[in-house]
Design a protein that fits this description.
alpha/beta, Helix Hairpins, six-stranded antiparallel β-sheet, Beta-Lactamase, 22 helices
Length: 689
């Protein structure tokens, strides 16, 4: 029998004895000795059974129970608690013994005075164990309340939780290490890629026969594809590691989208596809957000559409969503491609997925995964709809607020003009018609020259827009019929490749031309001209590009420059140094090459002054950042004119750009080096303008 039972039995016996004495004092009848003894024994057994049930219940649900008085002395101890100390419960009564506590975990103080405590104890066997104790006050004596503590062994739970935490910490550390590794590998990959692509550019500007040019363009294309893979993997690693910071700066989203569509137009037109853009009139174009990441989202979606579409085209639309404080942007990219099976749409935005499960596609399959994560980082949404055989539509909603002072664009009125559009076009013709209708004009679209001739004979149109893709003979017939019917303005719709091949529009009977993809302001400029302009030769048009005129070719751009400029080039890689030197020399510049930061500093002091310094960020010994700091410090000490410093680096993250500017650089050129950027750097007057 436990100590508690013994004490309880004595207490009952004492109570019964006191009852007998009271009865004698009152001279009340007393039960016979035999009856009283039996009653006391029955009552004692009932209490003992109750106590045993309570003890079994407590020890089955609670491993260690101890009660102490206000002085910390033990008044009750369970066998489980006594076992922690290697003694019997009776031996603990009146003592203040406790197992050694070597670590304390979480604790909680409840409003009702109950405390929950986790402690790591060292039992008598020497193996530490975690216990979770519930501690509560109970009725006590004059010394204060007693404290009852009941605990359960939670070693398995605590160690499992700690193992998970350690595994999470290891995974996070591995993720950081992976991101650092990828950033380093990215730099090391970009360095030879800079040489490959740069030398290909230089070689394409030399006299090559057609076969040689085909080979050079092939390895240049392959190099660019490899660069795209490197960029995609690096972006994904940054997003995954949570190291992608978003800017919040005002930018013109309409100009950004126009630029992306025009950038992708040659790629689409090389495949015989059209790419068209429609921007809503009620959109305030100045927005606050990260322009680079919005551009990346659009390039990924539209680039994918071009990649998987074989016939037809790609349409890009920009509109606003919501009203007031909840207003944002809606970007829509449609295509006439093969479509995506319905069962693959839910996993389309997962890592390493493509539109179908074949292995024939190029790329890593990270483009849409990166796009989705960028959209989510901007608190936006992205969805895809597709019909096999009929194309796909991707819709992105971005909650980018209008910038302070943003206004709606002015839209000219074309009412009540009637415009005939003749084009077999999935997007450009409908977008033109939509744009004209919003401006008050009545637009009619037909898809063949015959239908166009019929329309001209039946309706008095004010303007004709004919697509050259219908054929030269067909569009000339349309222009002649339009002139016969008194149509005031006839426009020919050309791709950039068509512009020089087609010749002067006037010679074919047209008043002017529009370059695809058509910008809204070009459309209005042409339609609102007071009278047809004089005929211009292709050479004149090249010298005075219109709003949609394509940029000069790489060779033409390379002929611009600034003879006599002196350039300091600090670059440790000999191939990249040769590439930059030859490109600069072709522009008429004199180049001094330094192989590291110390040589660059010596050149600044002994061979200056220079008009421009191109400094690689990662060089042995003294790196580019410290070189720039020392150049700026020297200028501050001597009062010398500031040297125009441009950082060269294969690390293109936002933090890398910020570090370059913080070190004193004026500009930032990523590798692979874009040779088209060099003339503007040499021509400081152009920069100032």
């Amino acid at each position: 029998m436990s100590l508690a039972v013994s004490v309880m039995g004595l207490s009952i016996a004492g109570a019964m004895l006191a009852l007998i004495l009271v009865s004698l004092r009152r001279r009340e009848p007393v039960m016979p000795d035999t009856d009283m003894t039996e009653a006391l024994q029955d009552r004692l057994w009932q209490i003992a059974e109750s106590e045993e049930r309570y003890r079994v219940l407590v020890e089955a649900t609670t491993e260690a129970v101890v009660q102490r008085d206000g002085q910390g002395r033990i008044t009750f101890a369970s066998e489980g608690f006594a076992a922690l100390l290697g003694v019997e419960p009776l031996e603990l009564i009146g003592s203040t013994l406790s197992p050694q506590v070597i670590e304390r975990g979480a604790s909680e103080q409840r409003g009702d005075g109950v405390r929950v405590i986790e402690e790591r104890l060292v039992p008598v066997d020497g193996v530490p164990r975690w216990f979770s104790f519930i501690e509560m006050p109970v009725a006590g004596s004059a010394d204060g309340p007693n404290w009852l503590r009941a605990g359960q062994d939670v070693t398995a739970r605590v160690e499992a939780a700690r193992s998970l935490d350690e595994a999470k910490s290891r995974a996070e550390a591995a993720n950081v290490a992976k991101s650092r590794f990828l950033a380093t590998v990215s730099h090391e990959l970009r360095t030879p890629l800079n040489g490959i692509l740069g030398m290909a550019d230089l070689l394409l500007d030399t006299r090559l026969d057609p076969e040689q040019r085909t080979y050079v363009e092939a390895f240049r294309t392959s190099g660019k594809a490899l660069l795209g893979l490197v960029d995609g993997i690096l972006d994904f690693s940054r997003i995954e590691a949570g190291r992608l910071d978003l800017a919040a700066e005002p930018f013109d989203v309409a100009a950004l989208v126009e630029g992306v569509v025009e950038l992708l137009a040659p790629r689409a037109q090389d495949k015989g596809l059209e790419i068209a853009l429609d921007i809503a009139d009620d959109l305030a174009a100045l927005r606050v957000g990260d322009a680079d990441r919005v551009r990346q989202i659009l390039v990924n979606l539209a680039g994918n559409a071009i990649k998987f579409t074989q016939t037809g085209g790609v349409g890009v639309s920009l509109a606003r969503s919501g009203e007031g404080q909840g207003e944002g942007l809606v970007l829509t990219v449609e295509d006439t491609g093969p479509g995506i099976p319905e069962e693959r749409i839910p996993i389309l935005f997962e890592e390493f997925e493509q539109g179908d499960d074949s292995a024939s596609h190029e790329g890593t399959g990270l483009g849409l995964a990166i796009t989705r994560r960028l959209v989510e980082r901007m608190n936006g949404t992205i969805e895809a709809r597709s019909t096999v055989g009929r194309g796909s539509t991707f819709r992105v909603v971005l909650p980018l607020a209008a910038a302070e002072g943003a206004t709606l664009p002015e839209t000219p009125s074309l009412a009540p003009r009637k415009v005939l559009i003749v084009a077999a076009s999935p997007y450009q013709a409908p977008f033109l018609a939509r744009r004209l209708s919003r401006s008050g004009a009545a637009a009619v679209v037909v898809n063949s020259a015959e239908a166009g001739l019929d329309a001209l004979s039946g309706v008095a149109f004010d303007a004709l827009i004919a697509d050259r893709s219908l054929g030269d003979a067909a569009v000339r017939r349309l222009a002649a019929e339009a002139a016969r019917c008194g149509v005031r303005c006839s426009l020919i719709l050309l791709s950039p490749f068509d512009r020089r091949e087609f010749g002067a529009p006037n010679a074919a009977g047209f008043d002017s031309y529009l370059i695809k993809p058509v910008r809204a302001r070009s459309l209005f400029d042409r339609l609102l001209e007071p009278r047809p302009g004089p005929a211009r030769s292709p050479a004149d048009a090249a010298a005075q590009p219109g709003p949609s005129q394509p940029a000069p070719t790489k060779t033409e751009a390379g002929k611009a420059g600034a003879p006599g400029r002196r350039v300091l080039l600090a670059e440790d890689n000999p191939i990249n140094a040769l590439l930059a030197t030859k490109a600069l020399e072709r522009l008429g510049a004199g180049v001094i090459h330094a192989r590291d930061g110390l040589e660059a500093l010596a050149a600044v002091e002994g061979q200056g002054p220079f008009d421009l310094a191109l400094i690689d960020i990662r060089m042995p010994g003294l790196d580019g950042l410290e070189t720039a700091r020392r150049i700026r410090a020297r200028e501050a000490e001597t009062g010398a004119s500031p040297l125009h410093l441009v950082a060269l680096t294969a690390n293109t993250g936002r933090e890398d750009v910020a570090a370059a500017y913080a070190a004193g650089f004026d500009g930032f050129l990523p590798k692979p080096l874009n040779l088209r950027a060099l003339p503007a750097l040499l021509d400081r007057r152009q920069q100032a303008a």
